[in-house]
Amino acid sequence: MTDSGKCAFVLEIELLDGEDGSVTLCQRRYVDDILKRFGMDD
Length: 42
Fold this sequence. Notes:
This is Reverse transcriptase Ty1/copia-type domain-containing protein. Helices cover 24% and strands 26% of the residues. The chain has one helix at 28-37; strands at residues 9-10, 13-17, 23-26.
């Protein structure tokens, strides 16, 4: 196992680090891809 640095995405879920040490899981990219697939990406 090697340390590849800070993790930004896991299983297409974005990981956002909060200033207080919290971690937020964001699926913005997934939602954007779905909207684009159905022609709703205005």
